[in-house]
Amino acid sequence: MTDLTLDQYIEACNFPGKLDEASVEDHLRDYLRALGVDKSVKRLRRGWRLENEPSIGRSVDWVINEMRRRDPTFASVASDARDARDARDARDARDASDARVASDARAARDASDARVARDARAARHRFASWLIFGSWSWYDWDVAWLTTTYFGAMQINKPTVIAWTEPLLRAYLDGAWLLFWTDDTLYWVAKPTLHKMDDRRLHRQDGPAFVCDVEDLYFFEGTLVPGAWIEDKSSISAHSAITWPNLEQRRIACAHIVGWSKILSSLNAKTIDHDGDPLIGTLVEVQLPDLPAPSRFCMVECGTGRQFAIGVPPTTSTAMEAQAWMQGVALSKFKKPEIRT
Amino acid sequence: MKTFKNTAAQGEIGIRRIAKLPSDVTPMKTATGRHIIGHSETGHHHVLERPAKVFEAKAATAGMRILYAIIEDANVLTHDRPFDTHEPIALDPGIYEFRIGREYDPYEAIARRQAD
Fold first, then answer.
1. Is residue B93 one of the residues assigned to a domain?
2. Looking at the 3D structure of chain B, how many domains does it have?
3. Which residue blocks in A1-53 are alpha helix, DSSP H?
4. In chain B, whose CA is at the least distance from the CA of A247?
């Protein structure tokens, strides 16, 4: 019988907690023995580089080839990026249908060779991180999740399952968080440090909210944002903020990173129409760089009380007309929603 | 949970009760039993909580996605997000149109679906 308890497991779920590296690796070797698998065990440390981990590189290549095989759309986009030095595609492989991949490829092609090579390495590294986080596969190598099997195996007395889950649980209690399998190595990642708001949303205003040896990630009020926005607020301009493709990230950029007042003043915003209802909004006109004519946005509050700026055609003359256009109906047929949540 | 008679909105999704399903639609399948009405890049979808017959307009206005649902048993449109959640909206039996909002990209001069 083993001596592990659910209370120990619960305590180990408070990250980052204890880290005993030697003990983790001993337990993971026991885990491999129980599975009958012969691989070396290695911790993936902060600052790791893909060029020093050739077996991770082989996994990355395998996944990219597999994605090409399964998804012809990805294949064409990937080959576009490949033409531009074989890598910018990697970063956005998860968004294979996303036009950004193609535009990244074009940007890479236009850049200098040195810049392209550096971007390619960075893209490949980001893609590898994404794989290690388990985003690629339907299965999950989060040790917190895997080790719950131990408690079920104990309840129904399954010695063969206990044999591999017990050392894995011990590795978890000693600090292992993620596993990543390659052809010759079982990599493990220590538990991350999380910065959260009272309601558990990831959030930090002066650095990454998710501090992890694989990759640090930046969150603002629960929304994943580019790290540069947090590290250097001046890295995003007013026009980039108001035209940012993702609405949630745009809201963060406009409201918290750049600030609405700066956006409106720096773009010489002019109010075209102000509806009394904040859920219908205010139509503003701004002059965006590189455009010959002013652009119009409807600044509107959603049902959750947050403010968004939505682009509308320059011919729009009222906030209500903007609302009708957003819904793809003629103004004469547009009916204000009875409720909006 | 909010209720409505004819028109409602949940985030970028406009909801309208209609009398008849248009003819130019194609059925939408779901692998999970819960249809995604509004897809989110970050996984915070707007979903129908219970099974329904859902269809997509074959020829929507530029930048739009328009879905229809035949609701036979009472259903709920839910926003799958633990924070800044759009309140659920009850859907009584009937036929509904869902218009996923669009926006204008001034640099490309095109309409595109609002993405969050």
1. yes
2. 1
3. 6-12, 21-35
4. B116
